[in-house]
Write a structure and sequence with these properties.
This protein is mainly alpha-helical and 101 residues long. Helices cover 79% and strands 0% of the residues. Helix 1 packs antiparallel against helix 2. It starts with 8 loop residues before the first helix and ends in a 5-residue tail after the last helix.
């Protein structure tokens, strides 16, 4: 083990403890960011749905039938998705203690 032929039990215990601490330290960021990854995935799904609706809206109408107010509604929905993601992201960071309140 680590170049020693027969280490004493305190050395074995120290090695095991350092390995456990290293493993936990490596896994902690994954679980800390998991909530934010889920939020980003949900927002991305909303953006893709909005994009599909916009493409269908534009493709199913003649240029003369396109209404500026309807197109601006898509932009408003896009802004709302972004605003919701931003507020949830900041809330998640506050809960984890990484942003000052």
């Amino acid at each position: 083990m680590l170049g020693t032929s027969n280490p004493a039990w305190p050395v074995n215990l120290a090695f095991i403890c350092s390995a456990l601490v290293t493993t936990v330290t490596t896994l902690e960021p994954f679980f800390n960011w998991r909530t934010r990854w889920v939020l980003a995935d949900a927002a991305l799904a909303d953006w893709h749905q909005l994009e599909d609706e916009l493409y269908f809206h534009v493709a199913s109408r003649k240029e003369s039938e396109l209404d500026r107010d309807a197109l601006l509604e898509f932009q408003d929905r896009n802004s709302a998705i972004w605003g919701q993601l931003s507020s949830e992201w900041v809330a998640a960071r506050r809960e984890s203690g990484s942003v000052a309140k």
